[in-house]
Specification:
heterodimer, A: 59 residues, mainly alpha, elongated, B: 465 residues, alpha/beta, Amidase signature (AS) enzymes
Amino acid sequence: MEDEYLESLSARANLDLSEEEIQWVKTAFAGYRPQLEELMSLDLSGDEVGTAFLPFKKS
Amino acid sequence: MDSTEPLHYLSIDKAGSLIRAGKLSPVDLTESYLERIDRLNPTLHSYISVNGDSARENAKAMDTEIARGHYRGPLHGIPIALKDLVDTEGVATTYGSKAFKDRVPSADATLVTRLKAAGCINLGKLTMSELAMVGPPNLGKETLNPWNTSHAPGGSSSGSATAVAAGLCAGSIGSDTGGSIRFPAANNNIVGLMPTYGRVSRKGVMPLSWTLDHVGPMTRTVEDAALMLHAISGFDPADRTTSTESVSDFRSALSSDIKGLQIGILEDSFVGIHPDIEGAMENSIKVFEALGAQLCPVRIPNYRVLHIANSVIYLVEAFNNFGTRLREDSSKLGKIFRIYGYMGGLFSADEYVQAMRLRSRTRVEVGELFERVDLILSPTTNAPPRRVEEFDPFVLTESTRSASAEAFNLAACPALSVPCGFNKEHLPIGLQLAAKPMNEQILLNTAYAYQEATELYREHPPFQA
């Protein structure tokens, strides 16, 4: 993960991370990134947020 | 007394019958647990705090009630314990974190009120991973697995599992956002039940993720899980997520007849699992077949991204809950919670919404599976309990480590772990069963049939202080 990108994300979240914490977050992001990219590439058109607690069948 | 089990290993079901018959006193039962806690807890660290005096007082009150002919039901005089994220009036509830070490709630959680009304005696609060994340707590000492103290018990409901397994309480309460009841249950040869979302009130329970958190019982037997679930279930006006669906008497309705039941074997969950787990699962499948169930393979689409979807949702929600602490007072939070807490602040709104959309789709797809099968079977964990020193704080980023559990948090379905064997080092292994929402009875019946066929619950940890 590029430092500038992490800085922008941290600033948006109003987080002031230490050097050590930045390394932790980079390692976690590295583990999550391939999965996150796969998740974001899914075409989920037709699936609305908020239906996870409705009855199983779509109407 | 007509049982061959020592008092501390009596099932709730059995102890309750003896108490009702006047053959066992709640005072004697409570003392047996307190003595055992004194002896074993300094090594196992299952409890973060013990309420010895109030437990003795309550036990006497329960004795007196029985003597006067007032019997509350099968939990009358039963000593239990609570994960330290369940509020208890006037008793510290720390969430396993130094940041909350002085937090003393002014009221009981709804489920505590219900357990007390049923006659339970609260022995104390149980150690947990900090803020229900993973790994060791940030307050108190790390819980050890009573089956082998070189190994971890699993989390985040670590103390809830070990206290039950080692006979330090009759039953406990845990919480589950992505496997935190079921994983430690599997690692300790006990039953862990994550009820349907909305079945049990979470009023007074620490929120990690409003949309994924469940609270449920952890017990030595399926009958005991049924009894505790019955006591804590039902609509709570103080928790708007609770269901108005009626609560049946799960214990009375228990049946071990599962002939003709359709069980789907979740194929995805077998990929890359430890050979010992695979062997135990193969044996389990044979047991279910012998019991008359019909098994077939099933798959959940997008299985590979269920873990990241679950992670994005709960971490974003956790950041919203604990963001102020993370920004202003992070020195009191441990490394693990800081890593994942920060991640919750760094994921984007777009990623959260995409995860929630996948959740909606998964709910529909799991629903379609439940039109073909009554239950879905998988290993609870993909590997035996790790050695204590092998803990990797970045384990949560592994893609499919816990997806078989998380699938049912995402789909808001009930799921249960029941003991299914031991590995070569004699560490416990569990299997998971999941069912349609509000179908805990079929889950309990199937686990009961399996339990009665295998009798694994009869084996207890070898650990002695």
